[in-house]
Design goal:
Ribosomal_Su5_D2-typ_SF, 203 residues, 11 strands, Impact_N, alpha+beta, 5 helices, Impact_N_sf, four-stranded antiparallel β-sheet, Alpha-Beta Plaits, 2 domains, five-stranded antiparallel β-sheet, IMPACT family protein, Ribosomal Protein S5, domain 2, single chain
Length: 203
């Protein structure tokens, strides 16, 4: 059974690919993004790089579970560029990603159907060329306990194979652990039932 705390994304930009259709050139690329603010610098960079380009069209998707997206036609006919690119993001089921397709017009009009096909194909090629990997959505918890509870807490962490993000070990100990979202409730209960151990979700 696939857990709902896994998502697919990329960690580095893909190499730019070129797709040609009736002398129009479509340069496509995929970029990892963490927020909507990351989008604009990439677009501006592409406008500089391809200064003869007529359109820099793109689509992005963000969020591991609740997803938001935007598609931009950048002057091409409505829904002929951004949405076909976005369709490929859905098809590859990727998120936290921006796919751009930069068009240099070759003198022959492609028509709306031709544009949809070209933008879709270029976006598909960019994603096929990207290194897509799975990531796990995690929750972080803070644990506070006295030194005498150390053994009990460490044993549970080892047994459950949890990651320790940070630790302060003094008379009062503080640990931050990261847990798969699908296991978070069980882990919270496990430590919550321990006497002398305080656990809360790290905001």
């Amino acid at each position: 059974m696939q857990k709902n705390d896994v998502y697919k994304t990329i960690t580095q930009p893909s190499e730019e690919i070129l797709y040609k259709d009736r002398k129009s050139k479509f340069f496509a690329q995929a970029f990892p993004i963490a927020s909507e603010d990351d989008v604009k610098p990439f677009i501006e960079e592409l406008r500089k790089k391809h200064h003869t380009a007529n359109h820099v069209c793109y689509a992005w998707q963000l969020g591991a579970q609740a997803r938001s997206y935007r598609a931009n036609d950048d002057g091409e006919p409505n829904n002929s560029a951004g949405m076909p690119i976005y369709g490929q993001l859905q098809s590859f089921d990727v998120t936290n990603i921006l796919v751009t397709v930069t068009r240099i017009f070759g003198g022959t009009k492609l028509g709306v159907g031709g544009l949809i096909q070209a933008y879709r194909t270029a976006a598909q090629m960019a994603l096929e060329n990207a290194n897509i990997m799975e990531r796990v959505v995690e929750s972080q918890f803070k644990l506070n306990f006295g030194y005498p509870e150390m053994d009990k807490v460490m044993r549970a962490i080892k047994q459950k194979n949890l990651n320790i993000v940070s630790q302060k070990m003094e008379m009062d100990c503080e640990l931050v652990i990261s847990v798969r979202l699908s296991e978070a409730e069980d882990i919270q209960q496990l430590f919550g039932e321990m006497q002398e151990v305080n656990i809360w979700v790290k905001g």
